[in-house]
Amino acid sequence: MGEFDEVHARSLRDPEGFWAEAAEALEWEKRWDRVLDDSDAPHYRWFTGGRINTCHNALDRHVAAGRGEQCALIYDSPVTNTVARFTYRELRDRVAELAGALKARGVGVGDRVIIYMPMIPETVMAMLACARLGAVHSVVFGGFAAHELAKRIDDCAPKLVLSASCGIEGERVVAYKPLLDRAIEEARHKPESCLIFRRPQQDCSLQPGRDEDWMEAVSGSPPADCVAIAATDPLYILYTSGTTGQPKGIVRDTGGHAVALPWSMKNIYNIEPGEVYWSASDVGWVVGHSYIVYAPLLHGATTVLYEGKPVGTPDAGAFWRVIAQHGVVTLFTAPTAFRAIRQQDPRGELIAKHDLSRFRALFLAGERCDPDTLLWAQDKLQVPVIDHWWQTETGWPIAANCMGIEALPVKPGSPTRAVPGWDLRVLDPEGKEVAANTIGAIVGKLPLPPGTFPTLWNARERFEQTYLSTYPGFYQTGDAGYLDEDGYVFVMARTDDIINVAGHRLSTGAIEEALATHPDVAECAVIGVHDSLKGQLPVGFLVLNAGCDRPEEEIVTEAIKLVREQIGPVAAFKSATVVQRLPKTRSGKILRATMRKIADAETYTPPATIDDPAILGEIEVALQTLGYPQKS
Ligand code: COA
Ligand code: AMP
Fold first, then answer.
1. Residue 584 C-alpha to ligand 1 middle, in angstroms?
2. pLDDT tens across 238-278, in order?
3. pTM above 0.85, yes or no
4. How far does residue 142's CA lie from ligand 1's centre (Å)?
């Protein structure tokens, strides 16, 4: 047995011993009564009875242990020409001060706080300040529009909102405050107050009685201490796309998360405290929560907060500049970022202009990593390129090449093996395990390891129904794929209507709901088609109301605008067409999977239950007018 096999086997044989040992790395106000509590199975809880504060463990603990002068956070913003560094002591003081301001406004244990902010240090401070008080933050990605923000405000009912005047997207300044105003107007729940961080690039107006200037509110506020909460109390809620337009509030519990993340820093990413780790994502996504903010800080490493893009800020050498300038040892990003870089610098000439001698490994996740991109990155960077697989629900990797335990051989197209704590199986529709190399639903045997979500916010039934009911005893990942004879996982596709656009997870159902609000649209369908840069792009098919005689192009333009206004630019919805009818089964189910296969030029057999096969020909023609299938 190799080292990895041994560690993995032990994690499944003795999960309590395994994770209790990892929990020793943290400071607990009160130790747990039970490591793994199965009294409410299949709802398992970790470290019940324990009391802990995540902010204390991410900041104060390190200051007390002598890391106060070590850099905790590097803010690198090519879009504002700024590089700023915060030591652990500085970050702790700023967070304590902000927490003091929140406390003065009545925020305490269990209160929700929505954070709708760009990639600036204050956003990280906001998350940690909530954690300090035992409040539950919910960060909403800046690329979501007012309507999506309103849904989240209504679902988690925040006492307070933290926001900023604007974000900066490449050359474009995006006003955030008008979106927040509109969202609060639309939402039924009204937060008591909003603290607004006013950026010099674009100011905003403040609504008297509700909004306050962030800096004025914070300056001189007495610092707040950390408040220990139950290990099973929520640290945050992060909304992610489901199959409907109602997003799912993934709940992250405090203790399991605090234990799992620093463990993953050492064992998966092979990072030592004090080293510089960079996750080029956005704090609005789970990757940003876990690997820009919590994991590096809980581990005592230095994290990089990058407000820029892989290309265009200013060029395709931006990543190499950041790695060299800050001594980054490991970069974590999405394959799409590398496809964007490769498109602009196919020979990797900009890489040679920077000193990457300290750079050790590249980790990719967020979407399936095509072997071509992986091999290109490996060839140009001459470091291990590690594909790893995870989800908002799991909070940290399900499958990876655990570089801190034992580097296993890379198989392009596979995120390697289930990580310790995960017992992965592949099941057929009847719930029977399939043979190696046979595609099926990828599931994780319960209990899942600590740090994974215990439930959905205010939706225990939806949690059970979505994730636990199809295969009793297992967590349904929603991904299909196979395990090969060596136990390597191959993640091939989603089993639901979720698509992946530039590493961002989107619900075609949510886009359809937005399109359906157009007065001339009788029916619609959205599918994700293959895109050589972003992995997938959404394409919409609109059936108009009988008798509608308005020009089709006008309606298409309005429909595209509608999605941008209701969901946001992140949906990247730019392609739609009018069709006479949608292909359906006789029972009325729209054949989205068949439509996608036509768009991607895959072979397909029309299902036997199809109502009228001739419609598929019409869809093919409609796709051709939109430029699909794409020529590779
Ligand atoms: N606030 C406001 N708008 C935002 C935003 C934010 N935080 N983030 C993205 N947007 C906008 C973009 O400006 C773009 O608008 P446009 O249609 O007017 O051009 C739209 O949302 C789509 O954004 P994106 O999908 O990011 O496309 P892009 O063309 O701007 O950049 C990549 C493409 C590949 C460079 C970029 O997606 C990328 O770096 N992705 C990989 C890293 C990553 O973040 N992965 C996520 C999980 S690990
Ligand atoms: P998110 O919740 O936004 O992180 O998206 C999770 C989904 O992205 C997964 O369910 C997969 O469909 C996909 N995904 C993430 N990482 C990978 C990977 N390494 N390989 C294949 N698919 C991935």
1. 33
2. 999 887 778 899 999 999 999 999 999 999 999 999 999 99
3. yes
4. 10
